[in-house]
Amino acid sequence: YFAVATEGEVGAGDAVEPVAVAKEGLTVADVVRLYTVDANNQELLRRAVETPGLPDGWKDRFRKRLRDRDA
After folding, report:
1. Fewer CB atoms inside 10 Å of the end CB: C or N, the chain?
2. Beta-carbon count within 10 A of 34 CB
3. Each residue's pLDDT tens digit, 20-35
């Protein structure tokens, strides 16, 4: 998962470098799976809510799924 550390313009050929790697190791594909085919994967939901870079709204949704598997 990537987040913008400093706003600015990016063009073709510009370097994009990670400034930190979250220990949770959550990928964009993991988040897509949580929103589609793997919505009740408890282990993946736990990793998602512990990932500091995810928006609070997403974390709230994932926390609800941890509490209520039918959400």
Report:
1. C
2. 21
3. 776 777 888 999 999 9
Q: Which residue bears the tokens 């979250």?
A: 22
What span, in angstroms and rounded, lies between the C-alpha atoms of 36 and 23?
24
Distance, in Å, from the CA atom of 58 to the CA atom of 55, rounded to the nearest integer, reads: 5
Positions of the chain with pLDDT under 70: 1-2, 22, 70-71
This prediction's pTM: 0.66
Q: How far apart are CA 54 and CA 42, in angstroms?
A: 17
